[in-house]
C-alpha cells in the first residue's frame, strides 16, 4: 500500500558554472513506494540525489520532507531525518563477517570503545530478516557467500540505517539481470515492510520497470514524464513512450531554435 507523502521536490534548479544540471524539477515520493528515476548519462539524476541527501544545495526551489520545508547544510542533516544514500558499488568487505559488514562505519561500542558484538549480531539478523533473508550465522565471512547474498548484505546495511527514505544511485548498474532482480526484490520487501520510500536511480528500463511503483523520466535536467507502473504494460512499452517523448521534445527544441 502506498501511503502519505514523504518527500516533495519543488521546482529545483542547479547549475555547475555554466552547465545547468537541473531545470525546475518536481517530484514526489510517498511512504511504501519505490520511485524509479530513469534517465541517460548526464540527465541530472546524481545531482538530484545529491541535493536530496544534503551533499549539494539547490540554487532555487525547495524540498519538503514530511510536510515541512527542509534545508540541508550537510548530509548529516538529511541522515538525522532518516534519509540515507547508497552508491553504485554496494561494497562489502570480504574479509569481515556479515554482521560487521552491516555495521560498517556504524559500529556499536561501549563507553570504552569496545565493540558490542552481541548487539550487532542480533541487529544484523533483524536487518537481514527485514529484506526476507534468514541467515542463521551472521558470523561467517562475506567471502563465503554467493554473489546474490553478498549484495543482500549490502542492501541490508543500507535499509537498516535508512529509516524513512533510501536513495539508491544505480545500485544495479554492475549486476547481471538475475542479480539485479534479486536486489530489486530485497528493496521492494524493505519498502513494503517498513513503509519507507525509495528513489531508485537507473538508466536501465528493465530494472526501472521491475523496481518501481512509479517512474520519472529525466532528460537534460527536466522531468519529461511520470507514470505509475500499472499504467505501463512492459519495459518495451516504457521504452516506446520515452522515445516518443524525447522525439517530441527535440522537435520543440528545433522549432524554438529556428524561431530564435
Ligand atoms: N561537479 C560538476 N561540475 C561540472 N558539471 C557537472 C558536475 N557534476 C555534474 N555535472 C554536469 O551536470 C549534468 C548532470 O550530471 P549528473 O551527474 O547529475 O547526471 P546523471 O544523470 O547522474 O548522469 P550519470 O548517469 O552519467 O551519472 C551533466 O551535464 C554533467 O556533466
From TrEMBL:
Q: Does the keyword ATP-binding apply?
A: yes
Extract the Gene3D superfamilies matched here.
P-loop containing nucleotide triphosphate hydrolases
Q: Name one GO molecular function term.
A: ATP binding
SMART domains linked: AAA
Keyword Nucleotide-binding in annotation? yes
> Could you tell me which InterPro entries the record lists for this protein?
AAA+_ATPase, ABC_carbohydrate_import_ATPase, ABC_transporter-like_ATP-bd, P-loop_NTPase
Please give the superkingdom of this protein's source: Archaea
Instruction: Enumerate the spans annotated as ABC transporter domain.
Output: 7-245
Keywords assigned by UniProt, alphabetized: ATP-binding, Nucleotide-binding
Q: Which CDD domains does the UniProt record give?
A: ABC_Carb_Monos_I
Protein's name in the database? ABC transporter ATP-binding protein
Show the taxonomic lineage: Archaea, Thermoproteota, Thermoprotei, Thermoproteales, Thermoproteaceae
Amino acid at each position: 500500500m502506498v501511503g502519505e507523502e514523504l518527500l516533495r521536490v519543488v521546482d529545483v534548479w542547479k547549475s555547475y558554472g555554466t552547465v545547468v544540471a537541473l531545470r525546475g524539477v518536481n517530484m514526489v515520493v510517498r511512504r511504501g513506494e519505490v520511485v524509479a528515476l530513469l534517465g541517460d548519462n548526464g540527465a541530472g539524476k546524481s545531482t538530484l540525489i545529491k541535493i536530496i541527501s544534503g551533499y549539494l544545495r539547490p540554487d532555487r526551489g525547495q524540498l519538503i520532507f514530511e510536510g515541512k520545508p527542509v534545508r540541508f547544510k550537510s548530509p548529516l542533516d538529511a541522515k538525522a531525518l532518516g534519509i540515507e544514500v547508497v552508491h553504485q558499488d554496494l561494497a562489502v568487505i570480504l574479509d569481515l563477517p556479515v554482521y560487521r559488514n552491516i555495521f560498517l562505519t556504524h559500529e556499536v561500542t561501549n563507553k570504552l570503545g569496545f565493540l558490542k558484538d552481541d548487539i550487532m549480531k542480533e541487529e544484523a539478523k533483524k536487518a537481514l530478516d527485514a529484506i526476507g533473508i534468514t541467515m542463521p550465522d551472521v558470523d561467517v565471512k562475506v567471502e563465503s557467500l554467493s554473489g546474490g547474498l553478498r549484495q543482500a548484505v549490502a542492501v541490508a546495511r543500507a535499509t537498516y540505517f535508512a529509516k524513512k527514505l533510501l536513495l539508491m544511485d544505480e545500485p544495479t548498474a554492475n549486476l547481471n539481470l538475475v542479480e539485479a532482480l534479486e536486489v530489486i526484490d530485497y528493496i521492494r520487501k524493505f519498502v513494503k515492510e517498513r513503509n519507507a520510500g525509495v528513489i531508485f536511480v537507473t538508466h536501465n528500463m528493465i530494472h526501472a520497470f521491475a523496481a518501481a511503483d512509479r517512474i520519472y523520466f529525466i532528460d537534460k535536467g527536466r522531468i519529461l514524464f511520470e507514470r505509475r507502473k500499472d499504467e505501463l504494460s512492459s519495459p518495451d512499452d516504457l521504452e516506446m513512450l520515452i522515445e516518443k517523448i524525447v522525439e517530441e521534445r527535440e522537435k520543440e527544441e528545433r522549432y524554438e531554435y529556428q524561431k530564435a
